[in-house]
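Practice problem: predict the structure.
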Amino acid sequence: MIAEPDGPEDRLRRFATIWSRAVFPVTSTSLTRSEFEEQLLPLARRLSRALRRRGFDAEEAKAVGAALIDAHCTDPEALTRTLDCVDAYLVLYCGEDGPQDELRMRCSRLQHAMAAGFAQALRERTLAEQEAIARAALQAQGVVAKALHASDARFRAVFEGAAIGIGIADLEGRVLQVNEALLRMFGLSEQALRGRRVPEWTHPEDAPQTWRLYDELVRGEREHYHVEKAFNRTDGTVLWTNLTVSLLRDADGNPQYQLALMEDTTERRLLNLRLRYEATHDALTGLPNRTLFFERLEKALGAGEGQRFGLCYLDLDGFKTINDSLGHAAGDRLLVEVADRLQACATAPGEMVARLGGDEFVALTTGPETEQEVDELAERIMNALVTPVSVDGRELLVRGSIGIVEGPAGERTAAEVLRSADITMYRAKSAGGNRFELADAEADARAITRHGLTTALPTALERGEFFIEYQPLVHLGDGSVRGAEALVRWLHPQHGVIGPDRFIPLAEHTGLIVPLGRWVLEQSVRQAREWRERYGEQTPSGPLRINVNLSPCQLSHPGLVQDTVEILERTGVAPDALCLEVTESALIGADDDLLKPLRRLAEMGVDIALDDFGTGYSNLANLRRLPVSILKLDRSFTQGMQRFPADPVDLKIVEGIVSLAHSLDLAVTVEGVETGAQAEQLRILGCDTAQGWYYARPGPPERLHHLALADATT
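Answer:
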């Protein structure tokens, strides 16, 4: 894995290197690749400033797009590769300190502006070249006029050899002569074009001033004019041109002919339209993307007095599980089907649907009465998701959580509206999903508090605000303490003790889970060493072991094995004193590369426990290839055993799991044991160890000392 650059300038230069490597092969320049990279470095710096600037500046990004033309990056492929690099790497290397969602949104808008600047600069360059041709034609007017009388051969050489279309008409508009280039552009014969009148070539997309300029020219009031004009071909297609029309005068200065120079810009226009479409539409679903949605939302929020808006923010429930278990191709087909259904829900005027990314969609409705309309729109969306989606012969149930924001235009910014909708959507998801919720200020405030915790996490580790509690693991056969699970807590200066359910997801989202997990591992192993040094073999079951949870981020981190080995060697603890717990969901669809570090640790003697077993969608046959020695049965299977008599279905399920585990030489640990009857039933079923409030709540290491000593004296 490539190490990250050290400082902002290093990251910026890394981004410029990636950019230059992508674009250089399609660039017409005499520079070397290294020289070309130095030419792109100032542009990368401008993009970085634009990304982090408080107010969005489209002109800066347009200027960068235009600068690519000056750097001879005129091939459309150069723009495509540039946009790909900006999309993939700009936020990664230049926006590490900001809110990622906002930076991603701004990055998308920067790409749009860059594409616009690129297209405009390319067009201006082409126009300049055409103007040069036009000036040459005007300067040759006298020569052409004389050549018409003196040397038809010389005139034909100039007239027919031109690469652009040339036509000559009289002041009545009748076409007198055309060259081969013009005939090819229209797809007509010379007989079909000659004799036609210029005013017949009107088109619905003609600019308002087109025919006014034409009238002024044939009246002698204007020497020339330049417009972008469309023509209908006989095959039904449209020919787009850059058209320059000049007035030719006789020797006495009287208007005599009109000379038209046409450059075929159809492909360039199609390219611009394609770039615009690609910049504003999702490649997978064809829906408007985040960029176009924000344009529409900002327009709706800027509407006049009396106008309102309603926004539905949809996130599919359990989509990651489908992606992980069935593959991304199946997930993509599911997203396409969902997009089609959503688009069918928003067909009224003022309504639109867009995909923000991943499995996140938004539906927008505007108008004077959106209070009821947005609720009806949310109902239509929920009803559209009821019917299962067929993917690869499987009927997949699709559910979604929706956050609704509605209100008058002009009171909030687009970013504020989307943040509120996002917060509300997660509130609906936390309530069980498959529902929609309305935004409220108090929920937004709680989410802002959550954001505050996220920003405080990095310094919390440095300030030593984390501590560890230990919950004992008890052998069900003899009741002896075999070890403990390490559970990290956060002692926040303002909020007091915060449980892992509140800050672990934040740590995983920010990437802090890796250094935090390393700290927990080291502290826990040190505690295990202290237990062994103090008690040795005094406990009936031998030295106490320590169980440490391993997050999915840590599992995929390349330094996992090395960190674990170094901690064990530094503390002098044998590998068999450590058990790493990995959740079942983290190993769903795991390939050999992901399992390799676990196998290496298992070969060293470290136990691997499969935590929350039974909550995922993994195939039981996969247990044969996982390097685990312990199954931790999720508490949902044993809650029915807290009552007497126990649920017979739960008994059968647990009995089957225990039998399967033991046949594979796996031990079974049960979480959430809260009653003696529950513990006894689990012992009868053959479970090996258990933990829960029945034995002890998580607490300081001294409490485990007392429990272990109590076992030793009984």
